[in-house]
Design a protein that fits this description.
Blueprint: E1 12-14, H1 22-30, E2 34-38, E3 41-44, H2 53-61, E4 66-67, H3 69-76, E5 86-91, E6 104-109, H4 112-115, E7 118-123, E8 126-131, H5 133-142, H6 144-147, H7 149-161, H8 166-175, H9 179-189
Parallel strand pairs: 5-6
Antiparallel strand pairs: 1-3, 2-3, 4-5, 7-8
Helix pairs in contact: 3-5, 5-7, 5-8
């Protein structure tokens, strides 16, 4: 797993991270030192917010989920998609996380399809699990009926334009069981 350097300041907090009682929490909310973002999630008021803030929020509340598909495409700069929701992958038999106040799309995966090609990144002091570029492309073909074949093809063209590893892409396609689906498109691009 590849890691990015850790960020310096934590901007998102859960109620249990505050080590304060309800009164102290209410006092900080009233003084506007904290801003309520979602159930159990608070933002330090003057904290700088990055482009990928929504990924950090979802990772705080669903730490075992992996950011994937359209959100991962956006994170890696593959294609022109601007998702209005954060796309996450969770284990097939896992409970769907309760993320009230945060727009989320959930896909279910199992085995190597869930664990292979996951990178760990630090966003605003929060550890976020995100699929690698190659795994993200393979996932777009796996879920092409849900997100659209045009999105998968655009992402594949951009992946190739950025001269990323074809060997990683082939391995990810094998893990996601979409080798035969991707082969004609790869041959056309090469």
């Amino acid at each position: 797993m590849r890691r990015t350097p850790p960020a310096k300041a934590v901007t998102l907090l859960r109620a249990r991270d505050l080590h304060a009682g309800r009164r102290e929490l209410a006092k900080q909310l009233k003084s506007r030192a904290l801003v309520h973002r979602a159930r159990g999630l608070y933002l330090v008021a003057e904290a700088p917010v990055t482009e990928h803030h929504s990924l950090a929020e979802v990772a705080m509340l669903a730490p075992h989920a992996t950011v994937c598909l359209l959100s991962a495409l956006r994170f890696h700069g593959l294609g022109t998609q601007l998702p209005s929701e954060v796309w996450i992958a969770i284990r097939v038999k896992a409970w769907r996380p309760r993320l009230t106040g945060l727009p989320v799309q959930v896909v279910y995966m199992s085995g190597p399809a869930l664990t292979t090609g996951v990178e760990i990144h630090e966003i605003e002091g929060v550890t976020v699990r995100i699929t690698s570029p190659a795994k993200t492309i393979a996932d777009t073909f796996k879920f092409r009926n849900r997100i659209g074949l045009d999105v998968a093809l655009e992402a594949l063209r951009e992946y190739r334009r950025q001269r990323r590893s074809l060997e990683d892409l082939r391995e990810a396609a094998r893990v996601c069981r979409v080798e035969r689906v991707m082969r004609p498109y790869l041959e056309a691009i090469l």
